[in-house]
Amino acid sequence: MSKVYFASARAKKWDYKESLPGKLGRLIKKIDFKKYFKEDEEVAVKTHFGSEGAHRIIRPIFIRKIVDGIKAVKAKPFVTDTVRIMGLDYLEIANQNGINHHSCGAPVVLADGLNGKDNILVKVKKGRVLKEVAIATLIHDCTAMVVLSHCKGHINAGYAGAIKNLAMGGISSEHRIHGWKKGRGCIHTFGEGIITWTKNRCTYCNQCVNVCPLGIIDFKGKKWSYIMDECWRCGRCTRVCPENALRLPQNDEYFQKGLAEGAGAVLSTFKKKKVIYINFLLDIQPECDCMPVADVPLFQDQGVLISDDMVAIEQASVDILRKARFIPDSMAGDRKIKEGEDVLKKLHGKEYQLQIDEAERLGLGSKKYTLVAV
Ligand code: SF4
Ligand code: SF4
Question: Which residues of the chain have pLDDT under 50?
């Protein structure tokens, strides 16, 4: 049984110890960073910097607490993410969202360089979906990591937590030579991954144009086009299209298993017991932090979990969310989801448990856990 420590978001006394930053401090003490990180060891603090409109990311106060915990054991933290939009712009987004050296207390750097092409090819062990992927160099080269995951819904994944954070966030968008085929796009699609457009469905709402991180979609002469050679196959344009006018070849099972394999490839660059996971069940919005908006949360804040077992913390997180009551004035209410139903599954129609099952099958952890309240 793996241990997962849990701090509830509820605060029942007017006492700092009851606050979430206070409880996070206790979670860090419980797991004891000293057992994982050596003096002077560089430790990546992997988070998601968000987007211009998706403000519900992990707040800098929590990142700061973790950075301070790493410094307390005399290791050297840096805060990092991979390129989601081109580098300098993404660092500016991070800054706008409050993530910078001053707020976090550690350097904030892009793990795969300014243009997302600084990465190293890694073979995927036991890969049924992926063969080789480009891992961000900084994540590949560092020896220890704390993975901060904002748990939420996701149109493709159903649930997005630590597994998705590692797979989509540890693998670059593209490789210098092999392009998207060794990047995270190879989880989103397969073959040549050609996007098709159905003209008579299109309402010209422009949402696909707005979300493309590369600005490569055009509507010259009222005809949809994109620069295929540059496309990352991130699938954002197809995900937001309300009319299903855009299609990228996809397979749900392939995607869920690909996430687990991608996370496994990232973890294969670390020795055992060198990665800690912190899952934040706060601001549990329906979609990814890279989208241009963050809708109101589906559930009330639940709390924060910490563990050294990725599979255990993911299983514990989804178990909590399955029991949580949804907020009626949220997307869950709009979709007429009933009390007691699995909200994330109903909302996006995805078998998200598959990514956790597959991660266990790959030997990345155990679904059996003991939840210890702190
Ligand atoms: S999002 Fe879909 S409907 Fe809207 S402009 Fe793009 S293709 Fe057309
Ligand atoms: S998949 Fe769509 S949104 Fe993503 S880079 Fe390609 S055209 Fe742009």
Answer: none
Contact indicator for 268, 125 with CB cutoff of 8 Å: yes
The best mutation among 204, 220, 291 to test binding of ligand 1, ranked by most ligand atoms within 8 Å of the C-beta, falls on 204
Report CA(344)–ligand 2 centroid distance (Å). 25
Domains and CATH numbers, the chain: 2-185+251-373 (3.40.50), 194-247 (3.30.70.20)
Residue 20 contacts residue 7 (beta carbons within 8 Å): yes
Residue range 208-236, pLDDT digits in tens: 999 999 999 999 989 999 999 999 999 99
pTM of the model as a whole? 0.96
Is residue 48 a contact partner of residue 289, using CB atoms and an 8 Å limit? yes
3-state secondary structure 193-248: CCCEECHHHCCCCCHHHHHCCCCCEECHHHCCEECCCCCCCCCHHHHHCCCCCEEC
Ligand 1 site, residue 219, Cβ cutoff 6 A: no
Per-residue confidence (pLDDT) for residue 288, from 0 to 100: 87
Question: What torsion do the CA atoms of 193, 198, 204, 207 make, to the nearest 10 degrees?
Answer: -30
Tokens for 220? Answer: 């010259």
- The pLDDT assigned to 292 comes to 84
